[in-house]
TrEMBL record:
Gene3D superfamilies: P-loop containing nucleotide triphosphate hydrolases. Residues 3-231 form the ABC transporter domain. InterPro entries: AAA+_ATPase (IPR003593), ABC_transporter-like_ATP-bd (IPR003439), ABC_transporter-like_CS (IPR017871), ABC_transpr_LolD-like (IPR015854), P-loop_NTPase (IPR027417). GO terms for cellular component: plasma membrane. It holds the Pfam family ABC_tran. This is ATP-binding cassette domain-containing protein. It comes from the Bacteria. PANTHER family: CELL DIVISION ATP-BINDING PROTEIN FTSE (PTHR24220:SF470), IMPORT ATP-BINDING PROTEIN (PTHR24220). Belongs to the ABC transporter superfamily. It comes from Pyramidobacter porci. One of its GO terms (molecular function) is ATP binding.
Length: 231
């Protein structure tokens, strides 16, 4: 999915300007880290890509569609193309890990046999096959996070947004999750990862966009890391 952001500004209240005049283009299939200190506007920017937050000024277009022009009836269809893992995983507490993922396909009307197969595949991919029958409160934080990732990718989204996907994870699990995100990228999905984890950014190098107090202060495209390990 291709993203064009033009003069984007978000003012929550007279003294809270979360984003100031952002210009940013992201091509189909790119991987972008969104970095910046706490409160710099990363989450606000991502929530504007899903149209949860509307601009005060400026424009966000995905694949040439100006999000302001989307009708509320077309919003759910538009969002099916976007996989999201935000800090609150919002897993359904009364469904197992497997059911949390399958539920997405059920809502989208995918035939049952196909839904079962796709859910099995993705649960296996995130390394939760042996945990698939457990309820969210029986899973560790890192396992819940991987259920959230599985749920976000089961519908083969064209854009994947992750807010601090490795926050609170040990080094080993963080690495596992990161490789998972790189494999989603390798399959052609546009990926945006908001993170404070400088180690991650230095290890798996990709385009880096930095915000500071709502302004875009850095955009570096050099030194890509690919899933095959080439730098
Ligand atoms: N719904 C809201 N109402 C009012 N202010 C908000 C709202 N959402 C965000 N803000 C403010 O906008 C600014 C940017 O917040 P945002 O969550 O986008 O930053 P962030 O870079 O994601 O921070 P963190 O790294 O801590 O998650 C902050 O000052 C925040 O308090």
């Amino acid at each position: 999915m291709e993203i064009h952001i033009n003069g984007l500004t978000k003012i929550f209240s007279p003294n809270i300007q979360a984003l100031s005049d952002i210009y940013l283009d992201i091509s189909e299939g790119e991987f972008v880290y969104l970095i910046g200190t706490t409160g710099s506007g990363k989450t606000t920017l991502m929530r504007m890509l899903t149209r949860e937050v509307l601009p005060t000024r400026g424009q966000v277009s995905l694949d040439g569609i100006d999000l302001r022009r989307l009708s509320s009836s077309s919003l759910p269809y538009f969002r099916r193309d976007i996989g999201v893992v935000f800090q609150d995983y919002k897993l359904l507490p009364n469904l197992t890990a497997w059911e949390n993922v399958a539920f997405v396909l059920e809502v989208c009307g995918v035939p049952r046999a196909e839904a079962r197969e796709r859910t099995d595949d993705v649960i296996d991919k995130v390394g939760l096959w042996n945990r698939r029958g457990l309820m969210p409160d029986q899973l560790s934080g890192g396992e819940q996070q991987r259920v959230a990732i599985a749920r976000a990718i089961v519908n083969a989204p064209r854009l994947f947004l992750a807010d601090e996907p490795t926050g609170n994870l040990d080094v080993h699990t963080a690495e596992y999750v990161m490789k998972l995100l790189l494999s989603i990228h390798a399959a052609g999905t546009t990926v945006i990862v908001a993170t404070h984890d400088q180690h991650l950014v230095d290890t798996y190098r990709q385009r880096v966009v930095e915000l500071h107090m709502g302004r875009l202060v850095r955009d570096e495209r050099e030194g890509r890391y690919s899933i095959s390990g080439d730098l």
